[in-house]
């Protein structure tokens, strides 16, 4: 059977880009994979590695390097570059990449101005970078990835704490993919029943888990790449379901649950209690300030859509 998706572009051939590309090669539902990176050497090396995989598996996916300007025809692009910088932050770790990553994301958004496919932004701080990419490119289907992984980590933590199977846990984390993420405890259900959420344990694990992964294997890759594939499948209409992604929701860019039906998203925000609503407002304000103060990190050309 002919793969349903013609082409997908992956921009950034690091830990996330490599894992996303490997998963896409294995999944076999796109015909062509286009790879761009910060250096021709890394893009070419990833393509060579993927070609080996393609031959060994007799996979049908073709892979080649391409400049982002050659990705306009792709059904989707995955935006996962990272600038070279040393992150010394001990709190708000993702936000620390703002100044370094913003010019790269802004330049890519200019390159892909008017893009009509689906863009999945991964680069941190993801909620800010998603908005930056969307506003400069003018692209209408831009989704940021983060709350979905937070939600997965929340469910795993709760299941472990309560000694229940993770399938029994239904609950979400929304807002910022960062220190001000909002745990939707009041709507969380375990086996269909409300539950006392151990906030301190959940918050500690949401912050410690990525650090442990980074410490042990260099960078988080499998979880985020899996989330990229889930987002692509939903946004490209290959599967229906709910996934937490960063979008422009009433003028605020934040992670929220979206129900995808045949590729069309509908917001399905859980009911929030007063404290959760306040925390979401705080996260919105923090993200807005982070966005509004990006300008000093961008040249005039990078900042302004043409
Ligand atoms: N949102 C999430 O849930 C999530 C999860 C994991 C990682 N991330 C973020 O994703 C980004 C990538 O992470 P990583 O671990 O793959 O980083 P990495 O350092 O392993 O790789 C970064 C890649 O970006 C490339 N690059 C640099 N400048 C580029 C440019 N101008 N154009 C194209 N490519 C360029 C580099 O050559 C490198 O291949 C980081 O910002 C990271 O914090 C987000």
From TrEMBL:
Keywords: NAD, Oxidoreductase
InterPro entries the UniProt entry points to: L-lactate/malate_DH, Lactate/malate_DH_N, Lactate_DH/Glyco_Ohase_4_C, NAD(P)-bd_dom_sf
Database matches in SUPFAM superfamilies: LDH C-terminal domain-like, NAD(P)-binding Rossmann-fold domains
NAD as UniProt keyword: yes
Keyword presence, RNA-binding: no
Pfam families associated with the record: Ldh_1_N (PF00056)
Gene3D superfamilies in the record: Lactate dehydrogenase/glycoside hydrolase, family 4, C-terminal, NAD(P)-binding Rossmann-like Domain
Residue span(s) of domain Lactate/malate dehydrogenase N-terminal: 8-140
Protein name in UniProt: Lactate/malate dehydrogenase N-terminal domain-containing protein
Provenance organism: Streptomyces lasiicapitis
């Amino acid at each position: 059977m002919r793969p349903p998706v013609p082409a997908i572009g992956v921009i950034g051939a690091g830990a996330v880009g490599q894992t996303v590309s490997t998963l896409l090669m294995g999944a076999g539902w796109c015909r062509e994979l286009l790879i761009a990176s910060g250096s021709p050497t890394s893009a070419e090396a990833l393509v060579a590695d993927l070609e080996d995989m393609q031959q060994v598996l007799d996979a049908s996916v073709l892979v080649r390097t391409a400049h982002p300007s050659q990705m306009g025809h792709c059904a989707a692009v995955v935006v996962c570059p990272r600038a070279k910088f040393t992150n010394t932050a001990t709190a708000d770790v993702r936000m620390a990449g703002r100044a370094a990553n913003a010019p790269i994301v802004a330049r890519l958004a200019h390159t892909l101005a008017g893009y009509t496919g689906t863009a999945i932004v991964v680069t941190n701080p993801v909620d800010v970078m998603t908005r930056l990419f969307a506003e400069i490119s003018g692209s209408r289907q831009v989704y940021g990835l983060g709350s979905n992984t937070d939600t997965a980590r929340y469910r795993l933590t709760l299941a472990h704490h309560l000694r229940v199977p993770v399938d029994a846990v239904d609950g979400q984390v929304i807002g910022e993919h960062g220190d001000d993420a909002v745990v939707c405890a009041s709507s969380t259900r375990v086996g269909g029943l409300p539950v006392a959420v151990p906030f301190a344990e959940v918050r500690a694990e949401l912050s410690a888990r990525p650090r442990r992964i980074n410490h042990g294997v260099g960078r988080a890759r499998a979880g985020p790449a899996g989330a990229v594939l889930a987002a692509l499948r939903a946004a490209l209409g290959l599967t229906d379901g709910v996934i937490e992604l960063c979008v422009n929701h009433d003028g605020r860019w934040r992670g929220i649950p979206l129900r995808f039906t045949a590729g069309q998203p509908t917001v399905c925000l859980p009911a929030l209690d007063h404290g959760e609503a306040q925390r979401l407002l705080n996260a919105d304000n923090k993200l807005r300030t982070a966005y509004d103060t990006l300008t000093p990190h961008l040249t005039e050309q990078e900042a302004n859509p043409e």
